[in-house]
Design brief:
Layout lengths: L6 H17 L10 H19 L5 H27 L5 H30 L1
């Protein structure tokens, strides 16, 4: 199994592309400020999952999941800022938050599964 086979990875990867596309519509000054922060945090969520995936040391895999969760929270924060600055509609903000929360729940489930397996 590869990280690309995980449904949560697939969803996070799609979100990276959508967030990138969104940031390209920001005012020019924001491309290197808020836009850059959003692109980096959204990309870091699946990247951290990838980094820890399948490591023979379960704690390293768990750490990757934890960092991925943190990047999701950071991305949601940046999306809220974009919404407050009117670069993102309320409707699109709710859609992004809903999808990121779904990924967060999936990561939590993966984490719990690893913890159960690790204890055996």
């Amino acid at each position: 199994m590869k990280v690309e086979d995980l449904e949560v990875y697939k969803k996070l990867f799609c979100l990276v592309l959508e967030v990138h596309e969104l940031t390209m519509t920001f005012p020019k000054i924001e491309l290197y400020e808020l836009g850059s922060q959003l692109r980096r945090s959204s990309n870091s969520a699946p990247a951290n999952l990838s980094e820890g995936f399948g490591n023979k040391h379960t704690n390293i895999y768990l750490e990757g999941i934890s960092r991925s969760q943190g990047e999701i929270r950071e991305t949601i924060h940046h999306l809220r800022v974009a919404n407050a600055k009117r670069y993102l509609s309320n409707e699109r903000l709710k859609m992004f938050i809903s999808r990121y929360e779904e990924c967060s729940k999936m990561l939590y489930g993966l984490e719990q599964s690893l913890l159960r397996t690790h204890k055996k």
